[in-house]
Amino acid sequence: MKAFTYIQQGKFGFTEKGKPTIIDEHDAIVRVTLSSICTSDLHIKHGSVSRAVPGITVGHEMVGIVEKVGERVSHVKPGDRVTVNVETFCGECFYCKHGYVNNCTSPHGGWALGCRIDGGQTEYVRVPYATTGLNRIPDSVSDEQALFVGDILATGFWATRISEITEEDTVLIIGAGPTGVCCLLCTLLKNPRNIIVCEKSKDRREFIQKHYPQVMVVEPEDCEAFVKQHSLHGGADVVMEVAGGPDTFQLAWKCARPNAIVTIVAMYDKPQILPLPDMYGKNLIFKTGGVDGCDCGEILDLIAQGKIDTTPLITHRFPLSRIEEAYDVFENRRDGVIKVAIFPD
Ligand SMILES: [Zn+2]
Ligand SMILES: [Zn+2]
Hints:
six-stranded parallel β-sheet, alpha/beta, 12 helices, Rossmann fold
């Protein structure tokens, strides 16, 4: 089968691989029916994910149909339509039992698919710990509606949960890329008093204004003053930093009111400075990424109820055989792209 592969730093390309087989009793084989490209794939391509193993099939956002399951997989069976979680986790270690599945201590725990083991930009994928890593998609939910459940939407849901948002809050979300929009969708469910989205790209600000007119948008240069003006206590009650730009961490804590929660969802290319003397007395609470992706069942229920819809994020569609074009569009942000969907040929 055709597998889009991390060949070496700076280079992805197709290789021919055999169809995966069950190698552990907790595995499942899933036929990929729709996948996507994530910014993390680009991080692998550019060599900034040191754990990524050359030769692996990339891709960790996908949905599919279960083809085969190992003896100890409960929960899903062949023929089920499923979301695939970006994280594989045993469900039994200290971290898993506390819901901190990103830090699962199993050798396969955490982000393995499309990073350390073969992922989903191909025809079939082997999913370890399938009982915890796969969720059945309700019949009323389409593949496109479910596509982001296991990765960026799980991230938005988790970030919103740990940010402890209340209906009194002014919430600032920095960054309106795909994950920022997922944070926004989950924040909307919490019904806060105000939501402000800060984004430097005009296209993306317009996307937010078009789809979520109840949300305020602002450019980074005006953000601090705008947030002060539109919040009750001199700054945002909750800040989610999802941009990962050169100055966005500084912007995040500066826009927060004293005692606010500042959730860092972004993955940075470089170390950030935590200027403790400047923020002394502000008594901020920082929470940091990455996602504990263990709420996928609940997220799928919310999609089925019509409460979350990520389909506007899918701006482009390509067959697997043209995935190189899809990468070019996504990486270079051509043609107003937000996310691409890759379907089988
Ligand atoms: Zn991702
Ligand atoms: Zn575990």
